[in-house]
Design goal:
By secondary structure, this protein is mostly helical. The chain is built from 4 helices and 4 strands; from the N terminus they run αββααβαβ. It is elongated, with a radius of gyration of 16 Å.
């Protein structure tokens, strides 16, 4: 949740040593927990919904320079963005 928290800022500044790690959302399970097929489907649906909200929010905060589809693709590929890339996509305002 670090990227959405960062994206709330009105003036988003980073140093040249900052990177952004986009990854899919996940869930940990208690090793003693028994899950039915329905439980797994419900958890999968919940994660997919949360990822949609996450990607939509990032797109909104970047003025749609960084589309929700692009965010989801970066998450799926587990991508690191450097400050210059994040600035090009509207996530960062300035590099200090």
């Amino acid at each position: 949740m670090a990227i959405p928290i960062f994206a709330v800022g009105n003036r988003r500044l980073v140093t040249k040593h900052t990177d952004f790690y986009f990854h899919e959302l996940g869930n940990t399970f208690d090793k003693e927990e028994r899950l039915s097929v329905s439980d797994i489907r419900t958890k999968e649906k919940s994660l997919a919904t949360s990822q949609g909200w996450y990607s939509d929010f990032i797109a909104q905060q970047t003025g749609d320079k960084f589309t929700a589809t692009k965010v989801l693709a970066l998450m799926k590929e587990e991508t690191f963005l450097l400050p210059e890339q994040a600035k090009e996509l509207g996530l960062v305002h300035d590099i200090i």
